[in-house]
Design a protein that fits this description.
With 209 residues, the chain is α+β, with helices and mostly antiparallel strands. Helices cover 34% and strands 16% of the residues.
């Protein structure tokens, strides 16, 4: 299970400062009154930026791991929220998504780019629509675009919208879709849907989507 680590720096700054050594989780989310053997459980690595480690905790009684993801990182995608934001803004500012796709990933063929872009744009737009409903007093009259949310939030340069929204949306991060929120994809286990755990190793599940 991913949890938010409030952090306003970039991924590169997090790596330089070894931010995973500064993260702490004082109480077990499953047993806030105590009584379990909740403890730090090492780290796992993310591919980008190089050198990134994410702090983990484990509750043996609840059989659940908890990772503390800094605000700058995209959930369930490689890289940072700023990179996702750049893709979505490129689509918003282009005549069409197809035109934007031609410029964004020249290293892969167009159908692959369209899927890559579509996943990011669709997930961000869904999260913005959900936030409009969750916080109508703040966003009801705001279009579900990053540029409109930037204006509402007073971000004059239009940058860092997703990082700011992760802090605002903290009470609902488990319900909001990645890469902004932490709602996990599910796999079927024994006929039931089960949330993914965070194994030791490079990048959490879903890193290449």
């Amino acid at each position: 299970m991913q949890l938010r680590f409030a952090y306003r720096g970039t991924g590169e700054e997090y790596v330089s400062a070894k931010g995973w050594e500064q993260t702490t989780l004082k109480r077990c989310p499953l047993h806030p009154q105590g009584g379990c053997h909740f403890a730090r459980h090492g780290t796992y690595a993310r591919i980008s930026p190089p050198g990134t480690l994410i702090c983990r905790y484990y509750c043996p009684e609840g059989h659940r791991t908890f990772s503390l993801l800094p605000d700058c990182y995209a959930a369930q995608l490689t890289g940072q929220l700023s990179e996702v934001e750049d893709v979505v803004k490129a689509v918003e500012n282009a005549p069409s998504q197809a035109v934007a796709c031609e410029q964004l990933r020249p290293d892969i063929e167009l159908p692959g780019v369209q899927r890559w872009v579509g996943r990011r744009v669709g997930a961000v737009r869904l999260a913005l629509h959900l936030l409009k409903g969750l916080l109508p007093e703040r966003f009801a009259d705001c279009a579900a675009t990053l540029s409109a949310f930037a204006l509402t939030l007073g971000l004059l340069d239009g940058c860092g919208v997703l990082v700011v929204l992760r802090g605002i949306a903290e009470p609902w991060l488990q319900q909001l879709p990645a890469p902004l929120g932490f709602r996990p994809r599910h796999r079927v286990v024994g006929g039931r849907r089960a949330a993914r755990q965070h194994p030791t190793g490079a990048d959490p599940p879903g890193k290449n989507r």
